[in-house]
Amino acid sequence: MIHALANPTRFLKLARPLTPVLFWAGVALALFGAWAGLTQTPADYLQKESVRILYIHVPAAWLGMGGWTGVAGASLGYLIWRHPLAHIAARSIAPAGAVFAALCLITGSIWGRPTWGTWWEWDGRLTSMLLLFFVYIAYIALARADSDRGGDGRVPALFGVAGSVLLPIVRYSVVWWNTLHQGQSIGLTSSSIDGSMLWPLFFTIGGFTLLFAGVVLMRMRAMLATQKVEARLRRMAAR
Amino acid sequence: MNHWAFVGAAYAVTLAGTGGLALWAWRSMRRAEVAADSLRRDA
């Protein structure tokens, strides 16, 4: 399946109709989830109304980390199979992942002020997430420099794989260190959040994930089209 | 402390961030695909 899609023509045939479907389905689900989170759920007895930031903060954290999982996976795919599309996928995921990592940090900071009484705390979770954001920025700069110098993409791919060492640190920071950030409240099979407050979160997580996928497809299509133009211009110049 | 002000600020930042990201991605895709199509037609 992955090898079949590594063909740019086949990939574009699928990506063109899929881009608007993923994007608009994501927008609709995220908007519904946000509306429900703002109006259809009770306030928390301790955090009051500010608990509603949960519905955008958790998807942003999920996509900030999920985005780097995608960068690392695509980079590994590029290093092993040398599929150019894997390199394009990694480069396309990075800006979207960086934006969601930044949104996670900003919404978390806004949430922290009324809940903890501070905008920022150098604890394990916040610091490791900030590091992940910087790693995204470094990857974007490295991939651009590599592309400008006509590199083969191996250096950014190695960086993409190496950067994944941060993911378990972000994930388990609340377990390994005694942090101000709360521990894990949502697991695969159980949650410490009551169902009456939890359900809109599934809509926002699903919605933002689809929107993220739509944006990544847009970036991949843009990069493929740019490569096509550059290749054609090179051929014309060589004649 | 008015908690709604913090909620509003967080949602506004998220809307601006995701909206800006989507607009940037869509515009760069459109520009690149239009350039590729026009070059193919000219060739």
UniProtKB/TrEMBL annotation, chain B:
<feature type="transmembrane region" description="Helical">
    <location>
        <begin position="6"/>
        <end position="26"/>
    </location>
</feature>
<keyword id="KW-0201">Cytochrome c-type biogenesis</keyword>
<keyword id="KW-0813">Transport</keyword>
<keyword id="KW-1133">Transmembrane helix</keyword>
<comment type="similarity">
    <text>Belongs to the CcmD/CycX/HelD family.</text>
</comment>
<keyword id="KW-1003">Cell membrane</keyword>
<keyword id="KW-0472">Membrane</keyword>
<dbReference type="GO" id="GO:0015886">
    <property type="term" value="P:heme transport"/>
</dbReference>
<dbReference type="Pfam" id="PF04995">
    <property type="entry name" value="CcmD"/>
</dbReference>
<dbReference type="GO" id="GO:0017004">
    <property type="term" value="P:cytochrome complex assembly"/>
</dbReference>
<comment type="function">
    <text>Required for the export of heme to the periplasm for the biogenesis of c-type cytochromes.</text>
</comment>
<keyword id="KW-0997">Cell inner membrane</keyword>
<protein>
    <recommendedName>
        <fullName>Heme exporter protein D</fullName>
    </recommendedName>
</protein>
<keyword id="KW-0812">Transmembrane</keyword>
<dbReference type="InterPro" id="IPR007078">
    <property type="entry name" value="Haem_export_protD_CcmD"/>
</dbReference>
<dbReference type="GO" id="GO:0005886">
    <property type="term" value="C:plasma membrane"/>
</dbReference>
